[in-house]
Amino acid sequence: MNKTTALIFAAVIVASTATSLSLAWGRTAEEVSIEIVSDTGATLLTIPYQEYRQEGTHISKQYLEAVKNRNYGIVIRNMTRDRVGVVIAVDGRNIISGKRSDLKNTENMYIVESYERGQYDGWRTDRNTVHKSYFTDLQDSYAMRTFRDSSSMGVIAVAVYREKVRPQTRYEMLKKNAPAAPAAESSAHGKARASRDEAAGTGFGDAQHSPTITVSFEPEQDPVQKILVKYEWREVLCRKGLLQCGQRQGSRLWDQDEYAPFPPL
User: Is residue 27 part of a domain?
Assistant: First the structure.
């Protein structure tokens, strides 16, 4: 049986202790979930949109308010008994290789051990370095600046894969079985031109140390879960009715003037 090579992230191995998960899969004792967090560690609020099953894959769609220039990370918590592989794509690009992503099991992926968590803060440029993710305008996004690709702008996507063979290794890993990303790639440049000025994207920020080592991991053919988070600027979410952004309605028995008004003339 052929096995793919993987990289273990030694710098971000942390036991999971949190009990509040923003994107939970189902309500079972075993689940894999994600949070989008700011660089201060605060969990960013998501708005549930759709949840359904497609063949053997559980799919969840959420909305998220993007705040311009805010750094963010993707926290994945594995509450199952086995380690899992996760393909992570931001704006349609795999965050490890930079290549166009379809969330397939042949792509580079991170590995999260059982009952542990991993935090992924940006675009990987070598075995020891990532560049931080931050919310920005479409033209400043990594996908547009590097690949001229706006085909999946404003989407954080995660596909969760079980492992065919499960060796007893207690680490968080990165599967490495694809060639390096090209410097540029043709794309769906020009799509959604009318809404380009208001589109949110993810930028290529400051470098951050994140060392790795190599291991083996063979994913199953199909993902057991897919998590899709559409992030938008606040004004877009307001216009779509996903946030209540109008004037706050006062309480009839609470918000009262101090004195009685004069009657009309």
Answer: yes
